[in-house]
């Protein structure tokens, strides 16, 4: 080191100015200064208040683009994860958002803490870098992915039964059996808060599963919408065939039966059905329909069979036609159009190489029935009570 006597005047000047510069730098990093920048009026040195304000600003930025009436995803909600690849749905998984958990799959995982507070319908990247869409399931999707005991009444059949029965808000509906609770949920939404549904199930395990699925949907609905789902379904464990005491003094606008032998329960049910009301029967096998019709023929019940149907949907594949390298095919033009296009400059040709710049109608589409179709689910019978 050099002796201090040999230091020049310029060095001494730098030494005298250095502490003041350090103090200025330090002052800009103090909590008081940060609080002043954030316009926070707290006691100096309260670092917790700074963290609180920073987190508040973070939340404000997170919710800045939330539309009126829109709610972000929160812990406790039931959500649906989707991963699509090459026009194909590779993964669809329903899960409940829980603090500290993570969504795991063959496509990688996403932490639940990252999902919380984001908009429903947000695309996240898994640890493998794959895009995962996280959104809220519809009631139809919830019934398809919820835990089951027996097979459910599929949404396509449930919607047809609701139309058959002409269920309206305020109706009182009888259902048997409860199964896994799918039809109970659809009926609950149809009758609304002023209507009621009496759901009867003979098996205890099916009864428990239906109640659990119903309550799980109600909880998730409250978190996602902020409103209570109507508590309008009353589950009863018992055999409908011997349920005359349960039905005493009751009347129903319509009836939905999903039983092995529904013709055995009709003598108990029909006296409590409004005249002109509909009893919709859900049966998996056509031989069961034959037994039902034979039971009606041998009985004196005031019923007429109006329809026996099978509901079928056909999924279609509709997408732009792609080459093997992933680029778009283009429609072949007429000779006159080719001449016109050749007169364009190279810059225009380069612009049309981008898919977004292709003219409307220049890309051909493939349009055909999807190779994977849903098979048979059930037959539906529409019985109407008449006055003879």
TrEMBL record:
Q: Which Pfam families match?
A: GCD14, TR61B_FKBP-like
Q: Does the keyword Aminoacyl-tRNA synthetase apply?
A: no
Q: Which SUPFAM superfamilies match?
A: S-adenosyl-L-methionine-dependent methyltransferases (SSF53335)
Q: Where is this region: Disordered?
A: 1-36, 326-355
Which reactions does this protein catalyse?
an adenosine in mRNA + S-adenosyl-L-methionine = an N(1)-methyladenosine in mRNA + S-adenosyl-L-homocysteine + H(+)
Show where the TR61B FKBP-like domain sits: 75-129
Q: What class of enzyme is it?
A: transferase
Classification via InterPro entries: SAM-dependent_MTases_sf, TR61B_FKBP-like, TRM61_C, tRNA_MeTrfase_Gcd14
Please provide, in alphabetical order, the Gene Ontology terms of the cellular component aspect for this entry: mitochondrion; tRNA (m1A) methyltransferase complex
The EC number(s) attached to this protein equal 2.1.1.220
Q: Which UniProt keywords apply?
A: Methyltransferase, S-adenosyl-L-methionine, Transferase, tRNA processing
Keyword Transferase assigned? yes
Skewed-composition ranges (Basic and acidic residues) = 12-21
Provide a Gene Ontology MF annotation, just one: tRNA (adenine(58)-N1)-methyltransferase activity
Choose any GO biological process term that the UniProt entry carries and state it: tRNA methylation
Any idea where the tRNA (adenine(58)-N(1))-methyltransferase catalytic subunit TRM61 C-terminal domain is?
138-381
For bias type Acidic residues, the affected ranges are: 338-348
List the PANTHER family hit by this protein, alphabetically.
Answer: TRNA (ADENINE(58)-N(1))-METHYLTRANSFERASE (PTHR12133), TRNA (ADENINE(58)-N(1))-METHYLTRANSFERASE, MITOCHONDRIAL (PTHR12133:SF1)
Name of protein: tRNA (adenine(58)-N(1))-methyltransferase
Lineage of producing organism: Eukaryota, Metazoa, Chordata, Craniata, Vertebrata
């Amino acid at each position: 080191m050099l002796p201090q006597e040999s230091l020049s005047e310029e060095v001494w000047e730098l030494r005298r100015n250095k502490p003041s510069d350090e103090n200025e730098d330090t002052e800009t990093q103090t909590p008081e200064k940060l609080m002043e920048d954030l316009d926070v009026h707290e006691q100096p040195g309260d670092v917790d208040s700074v963290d609180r304000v920073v987190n508040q600003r973070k939340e404000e930025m997170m919710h800045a683009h939330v539309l009126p009436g829109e709610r972000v995803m929160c812990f406790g909600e039931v959500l649906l994860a989707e991963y699509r690849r090459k026009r194909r749905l590779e993964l669809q998984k329903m899960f409940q958002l829980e603090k500290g958990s993570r969504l795991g799959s063959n496509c990688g995982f996403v932490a639940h803490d990252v999902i919380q507070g984001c908009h429903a319908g947000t695309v996240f990247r898994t640890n493998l870098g794959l895009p995962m869409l996280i959104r809220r399931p519809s009631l139809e999707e919830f019934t398809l992915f919820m835990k089951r005991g027996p097979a459910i009444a599929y949404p396509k059949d449930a919607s047809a039964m609701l139309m058959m029965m002409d269920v309206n808000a305020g109706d009182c509906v009888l259902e048997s059996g409860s199964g896994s609770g799918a039809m109970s949920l659809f009926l609950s939404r149809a009758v609304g808060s002023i209507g009621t549904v009496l759901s009867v199930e003979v098996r205890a395990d099916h009864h428990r599963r239906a109640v659990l699925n119903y309550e799980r949907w109600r909880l998730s609905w409250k978190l996602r919408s902020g409103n209570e789902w109507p508590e309008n379904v009353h589950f009863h464990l018992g055999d409908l065939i011997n349920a005359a005491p349960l039905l005493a003094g009751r009347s129903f606008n319509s009836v939905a039966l999903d039983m092995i032998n529904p013709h055995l329960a009709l003598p108990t049910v029909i006296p409590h059905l409004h005249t002109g009301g509909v009893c919709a029967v859900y049966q998996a096998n056509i031989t069961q329909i034959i037994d039902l019709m034979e039971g009606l023929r041998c009985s004196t019940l005031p019923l007429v069979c109006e329809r026996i149907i099978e509901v079928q949907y056909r999924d279609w594949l509709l997408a732009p036609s792609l080459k093997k390298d992933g680029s778009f095919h283009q429609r072949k033009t007429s000779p006159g159009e080719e001449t016109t296009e050749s007169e364009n400059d190279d810059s225009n040709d380069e612009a049309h190489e981008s898919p977004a710049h292709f003219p409307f109608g220049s890309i051909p589409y493939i349009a055909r029935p999807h190779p994977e179709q849903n098979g048979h689910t059930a037959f539906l019978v529409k019985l109407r009570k008449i006055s003879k």
